[in-house]
């Protein structure tokens, strides 16, 4: 279980790292599947021709085991609330990053949108609202060891606390990512890198501002970044005061 200090860190910083949430041998089995899906040869660097290859959802046994790891089930209840999240037995998307030349083209600071706009097929029009409709958590599943040079996800610490006041004017309809200035509003915050060992998982507030970066290491980086979906939007006025840490962070960001 997450202790009180970890939960408070999640509320104040926007993320918590669950070390060895799933076994390293499960991560290794998952990597083998992903290597095949990339079409690249792990022993032949000449086949590594792109800085990033994006793979979709995978429900093979290693990914189902990682997604349903007992430590994560407990943490979901602690951070989101019992009965407030949707179980999953698959993982995706996988941005597989390689140490090859060229800009990755996807390394801008952003938050993740969570529900469709007028055209569900156009992801650029998807939206996010103050109540985080559709998304309970952003998750980073490390399927390989990731050091400082291995393209770890960059995180702006505490950025999730500045997003609620920016989203509040848009109400339930929310906004797409072109409509509010979350990146400039968080540019002064300290950054950390989501490094760790295969089997570690970062559980992040859905409003956390984060970014990819270029791979400067030697081996391919394997990471899944699926959402944990919610059963309903956050409730920011609960008569019983039974707020989840996600809701408490949003309320803190609004000054409550």
Automatic annotation (TrEMBL):
Keywords, comma-separated and alphabetical: Dioxygenase, Oxidoreductase
Keyword Oxidoreductase attached: yes
Pfam families: PhyH
SUPFAM superfamilies (alphabetical): Clavaminate synthase-like
InterPro entries listed in its UniProt record: Phytyl_CoA_dOase-like
Entry's Gene Ontology molecular function annotations: 2-oxoglutarate-dependent dioxygenase activity
Protein name: Phytanoyl-CoA dioxygenase PhyH
């Amino acid at each position: 279980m997450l202790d009180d200090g970890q939960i408070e860190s999640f509320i104040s910083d926007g993320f918590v790292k669950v070390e060895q949430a799933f076994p390293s041998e499960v991560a290794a089995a998952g990597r083998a599947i992903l290597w095949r899906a990339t079409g690249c040869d792990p022993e032949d660097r000449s086949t590594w021709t792109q800085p990033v290859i994006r793979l979709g959802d995978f429900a093979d046994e290693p990914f189902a085991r990682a997604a349903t790891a007992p430590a994560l089930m407990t943490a979901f209840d602690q951070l989101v609330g019992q009965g407030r999240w949707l179980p999953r037995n698959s993982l995706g998307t996988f941005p597989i990053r390689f140490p090859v030349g060229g800009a990755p083209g996807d390394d801008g600071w952003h938050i993740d949108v969570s529900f469709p706009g007028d055209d569900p097929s156009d992801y650029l029009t998807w939206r996010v609202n103050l109540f985080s409709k559709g998304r309970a958590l952003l998750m980073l599943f490390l399927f390989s060891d990731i050091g400082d040079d291995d393209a770890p996800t960059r995180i702006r610490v505490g950025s999730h606390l500045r997003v609620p006041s920016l989203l509040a004017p848009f109400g339930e309809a929310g906004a797409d990512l072109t409509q509010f200035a979350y990146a400039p509003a968080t540019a002064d915050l300290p950054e950390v890198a989501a490094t760790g060992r295969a089997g570690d998982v970062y559980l992040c507030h859905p409003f956390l501002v984060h970014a990819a970066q270029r791979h400067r290491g030697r081996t391919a980086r394997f990471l899944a970044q699926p959402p944990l979906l919610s059963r309903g939007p956050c409730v920011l006025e609960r008569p019983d005061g039974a707020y989840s840490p996600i809701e408490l962070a949003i309320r803190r960001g609004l000054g409550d």
